[in-house]
């Protein structure tokens, strides 16, 4: 009732296309209710909606007017994928409408407008007033799109578009997106060698269930060639780090991950000096391998455990801190979602028969954790598309103030979902080549299911323009369409 509210966003959107479906212009007027006052991130959401409206498409002419209004509602703020959800919903819905007007397959309409790999980095201009001009850093949007169509079975499923089976009308829909990540200019990490040869790693990113300890242990272990069980990770320790900037804007793998990689390299160089002293041959070449330094032209070697013991006996601490500063372009992930739904026009109920989301996040550090991020994001997006709704009365009183009224998705609601990540285009702006993976799985879900529901109800000429697509709202759209038809 009191934390950040989000998603209350309206848009008047116009699209201009030539007869072949090439998008020549997009013009928008965005209206956002920011609530009773502007929270620290209250201005972020309206601006981001404008930034992400063009999406992964080559649109030569784009104009957007953003209007933020105060009301007596709970203030809005940044909630996973702030205003990306709305921007993708608006754009992908109007692309489907334009494709129908031009009698072009919606998949083909998108193919004709993607930014191509040879155009990367692609300049999108200064679409956020408080940030410098931005660029899509890398990607092959068309290749990932084709992969998604093939895995979803688009060509086979689209034959059922709008057809009835056992009283249910079937529809399939697509959506495409780009998603930025790695906000902030820097992140810090620290490594301290324990007397038993194990390592304590401290990072500034906050762990809220994303598996940071595992991911950062992997980065450190891979960089140093050590067993992962020899590394302990502590997140967001204000006692152990001078500064840290937390987890937001899908930044942890990129910013904190590269900070851990950098400090691991610095730690190795700090350890090398102690190894040279121990081996007693300052001019001999030594190499690090599997937790020990070895002399190239002799049998001398020393393990990290021995070096830790020597340092402890001297009262010396091997303790290194380093900071990763991102001076390059922010990484942009991108992806395609596809949905297959069935709608009962008698009740407005929508069944999700299949949902596929594929996203290119560059280097995938831990596939299992990434897969969990994808599934969680998809379900969260489906909850917003079908169930979750902040309803106020005319006096500004919140009516959906309990979980009896505000519906949350459960495991039984959406059993048929698939989330996948690929690495077609590693991020060129950071050594790990990673892109954010926390929010992209959510941001185009509503767009895909909105297109699918509209396609299923094509016989009524229903166009989904509002969320959530609850049964009463879908039923009412059908009845309004029947009334308009006479």
CATH superfamily of the largest domain: Aldehyde oxidase/xanthine dehydrogenase, molybdopterin binding domain
Strand content: 15-25%
- Find the CATH topology of the largest domain: Aldehyde Oxidoreductase, domain 4
Shape: elongated
Main beta-sheet strand count, sense and barrel state: 5 strands, mixed
* Helix content bin: 25-40%
Radius of gyration over all CA atoms, rounded: 26 Å
What's the SSE pattern?
Answer: EEHEHHEEHHEEEEHEHEEEHEEEHEHHH
- Termini, distance in Å? 42 Å
Set down the secondary structure blueprint.
Blueprint: E1 9-17, E2 23-35, H1 44-52, E3 61-70, H2 84-101, H3 106-111, E4 122-125, E5 134-136, H4 141-152, H5 154-157, E6 164-165, E7 168-180, E8 186-193, E9 199-203, H6 212-224, E10 231-235, H7 252-279, E11 286-289, E12 292-295, E13 301-303, H8 304-314, E14 319-325, E15 332-344, E16 349-360, H9 367-386, E17 417-422, H10 440-443, H11 445-456, H12 471-484
Parallel strand pairs: 2-3, 9-10, 16-17
Antiparallel strand pairs: 1-2, 4-5, 6-7, 7-15, 8-9, 8-14, 11-12, 12-13, 15-16
């Amino acid at each position: 009732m009191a934390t950040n509210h989000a998603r209350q966003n309206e848009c008047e959107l116009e699209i201009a296309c030539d007869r072949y479906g090439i998008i020549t212009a997009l013009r928008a007027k965005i209206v956002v209710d920011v609530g009773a006052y502007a929270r620290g991130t209250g201005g972020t959401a309206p601006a981001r909606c404008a930034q992400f409206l063009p999406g992964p498409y080559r649109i030569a002419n784009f104009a957007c007017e953003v209007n933020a209004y105060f009301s007596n509602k709970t203030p809005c703020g940044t909630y996973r994928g702030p205003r990306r959800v709305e921007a993708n919903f608006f754009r992908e819905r109007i692309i489907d409408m334009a494709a129908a007007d031009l009698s072009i397959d919606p998949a083909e309409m998108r193919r004709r407008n993607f930014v191509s790999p040879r155009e990367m980095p692609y300049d999108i201009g200064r679409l956020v007033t408080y940030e410098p001009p931005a660029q899509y850093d890398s990607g092959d949007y068309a290749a990932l799109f084709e992969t998604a169509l093939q895995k979803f079975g688009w060509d086979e499923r689209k034959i059922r578009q709008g057809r009835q089976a056992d009283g249910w009308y079937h529809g399939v829909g697509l959506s495409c997106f780009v998603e930025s990540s790695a906000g902030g200019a820097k992140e810090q990490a620290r490594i301290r060698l324990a007397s038993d040869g194990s390592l304590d790693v401290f990072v500034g990113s906050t762990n809220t269930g994303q598996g940071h300890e595992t991911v950062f242990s992997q980065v450190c272990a891979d960089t140093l060639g050590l067993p992962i069980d020899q590394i302990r990770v502590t997140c967001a320790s204000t006692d152990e780090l001078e500064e840290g900037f937390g987890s937001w804007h899908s930044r942890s793998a990129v910013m904190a991950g590269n900070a851990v990689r950098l400090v691991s390299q610095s730690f190795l160089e700090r350890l090398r000096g102690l190894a040279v002293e121990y081996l007693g041959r300052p001019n001999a070449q030594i190499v690090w391998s599997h937790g020990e330094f070895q002399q190239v032209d002799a049998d001398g070697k020393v393990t990290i455990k021995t070096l830790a013991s020597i340092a402890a006996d001297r009262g010396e601490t091997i303790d290194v801190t380093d900071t990763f500063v991102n001076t390059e372009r922010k990484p942009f992930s991108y992806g395609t979602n596809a949905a297959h739904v069935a709608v009962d026009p008698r009740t407005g109920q929508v069944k999700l028969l299949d949902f596929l989301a594929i996203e290119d996040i560059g280097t995938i550090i831990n596939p299992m954790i990434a897969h969990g991020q994808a599934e969680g994001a998809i379900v969260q997006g489906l909850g917003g598309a079908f169930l979750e709704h902040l309803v106020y009365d005319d006096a500004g009183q919140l009516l959906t103030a309990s979980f009896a009224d505000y519906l949350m998705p459960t495991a039984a609601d959406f059993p048929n979902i698939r989330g996948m990540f690929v690495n077609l285009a590693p991020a060129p702006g950071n050594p790990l080549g990673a892109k954010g993976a926390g929010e992209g799985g959510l941001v185009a879900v509503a767009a895909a299911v909105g297109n699918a529901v509209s396609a299923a109800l094509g016989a009524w000429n229903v166009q989904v323009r509002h969320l959530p697509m609850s049964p009463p709202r879908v039923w009412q759209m059908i009845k309004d369409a029947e009334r308009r038809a006479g």
